[in-house]
Amino acid sequence: MADAGPASFSTRANALLRKNLSYQTRNIWSNIRLIMIPFYLCVLLVGIQALFDSQITNSADNQCGCQCTLTNENGKCVNRTCGIEYSSTDQAFFCSIPSPPQWPPLLQVPPPQSRAVRASFLPEIGLPGESCRRTGSCPVTFLFTGSNHSLGASLYGNMLPSSVTVNSSDLLQGLAYNVLGTETEAELTNYLDPGIASDLPIYNIQSRCISNAAFPFSFGVGPLKFQKDLRCVQGLNLWRNNSKEVNDVIFKGYKKGNPEGKANEIAAAYDLLNTNRNNFNVHIWYNSTYEENSRNRPSTLVRVARSVNLVSNAYLQFLQGSGTKMLFEYVKEMPKQETSLRLDIASLIGPLFFTWVILLLFPVILSSLVYEKQERLRIIMKMHGLGDGPYWMISYAYFLTISTLYFICLMIFGSAIGLKFFRLNDYSLQFVFYFLYVNLQIALCFLVSSIFSKVKTSTVVAYIYVFGSGLLGTFLFQFLIQDSSFPRGWIIFMELYPGFSLYRGLYEFAQFAFQGNLRGADGMKWKDFSDSAMDEVFYIIIVEWFLALIAAYYIDKIVSSGKDPMFFLKKPFKKSPSMRKPSLQRQGSKVFVEMEKPDVAQEIEKVEKLMLEASTSHAIVCDNLKKVYPGRDGNPPKMAVRGLSLAVPSGECFGMLGPNGAGKTSFINMMTGLLKPTSGTGLVQGLDICNDMDRVYTSMGVCPQHDLLWETLTGREHLLFYGRLKNLKGSVLTQAVEESLRSVNLFHGGVGDKPAGKYSGGMKRRLSVAISLIGNPKVVYMDEPSTGLDPASRKNLWTVIKRAKQNTAIILTTHSMEEAEFLCDRLGIFVDGSLQCIGNPKELKGRYGGSYVFTMTTSSEHEGNVEKLIQDVSPNAKKIYHIAGTQKFELPKEDVRISEVFQAVEKAKSTFTVFAWGLADTTLEDVFIKVARTGQAFNVFS
Question: Which of 304, 358, 601, 833 gets the most CB atoms within 10 Å of its CB?
Answer without folding.
Answer: 358
